[in-house]
Amino acid sequence: MVRISKNFFDYKYDYREEWLKMTRELANLSDNPPLPERVTRILASLVESNSGAIWLKDDRGSFTLKASVNTPIAKYTDIESDSDLVRLFNHRDWIVNLQEYRTDPVAYDLLEIPEAIANIPDAWLVIPLYLDNELYGIAMVGTPYARVELNWENFDLVKVVARQTCNLLAQADAQHRLSRAMQFEAVSKASAFMIHDLKTVISQLSLLVKNAPKHRNNPAFIDDMIDTTDHAVRKMSNLVDHMRRPASDNGDDQQLLDLTSLVISLLEHYSQSRPTPRLEGNPPQALVLADEEQLRSVLGHLIQNAQDATPPDGEITVSLKIARGNVALFIHDSGCGMTGEFINCQLFKPFESTKGLTGMGIGAYQAREYVQKLGGNIDVTSEPGVGSCFSIRIPLAKAPAIPTAEPQTLLDGVPPQPRQSAN
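Predicted structure:
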């Protein structure tokens, strides 16, 4: 009879019109009404109904109510993953007609209807939603407002629309999960940077504690300890303030800095470790716009990395040059060096470290991100067994424009004199 109906009788639906109607409903990218509610309305309208509900699979494998339209909802709304209905849909692509079920349960192998659906008075059709042949959701359509005789055509159309709308539901859920994962990633990234900065502070304080018993009677050590502790307190306070401020207020407090003076103070600080970094030549003053604490942290990390990679009898040199509106800072060491593959694939990637469990793997990444934020860049040349050279380029701060003199005007009939050439 189905074969005869398909070939010799007119179709009940104008499929072009049905497809256009569904497309218009789903083309709305806003969340008003939510997508699960729109899907429920689309499925219900196919069989002259205006009520229904939809359940989608959650992380536990159960099915949670996501939307209901013109339908009273029972107290218990979840459908368990081990229910008879779920097992049926996992094996057979059936649409359960609850009116037929109530009349002849044996036709459905004495299927037990979940309480979440059985307690809805006007429940009529239960429709499986498949994503790549795996049950993704369950839709219920309420009793139609006009008498409808269901046949193969109704069921085929409902199944096709159910699959299409299920794809959109899964895509929307994937986008929501991605958005949530990105939020967690942002929190994790901020936490990683915070822990990295705290490690530096802890290392400084640990060194003080270690040397305190030996040098407690040395006034110079006491002065240095006070300076180091003050720096650690300021660094942690700035870190806490940065975390407390909203994202929109986390812009850097840029100020005019003398990069040469900053580098000299950093070299004095790191001169306590071996090998001692030294400054080449007599570099000129280089003014840049940056946040002093962040730039100090970035350059300090690069100098510390050079010391970690270089044996105590090695050499670390620092030089500054000015060219084409930029200041270039070169940090050269005679350490173990790096391969080209490591530089290209791992050096500036977060959470990639050659220090094992003692390294966070975000220092070089953080340094390049901040220098690029200033409009500069970091380049690296290295050779295993020979050493490495980090070149940091930062734009120079533009000098304030000098106001020009007012043009000379006629005075007492005397014309302005032409400005004498420098030649």
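Summary: The longest strand covers residues 123-131.
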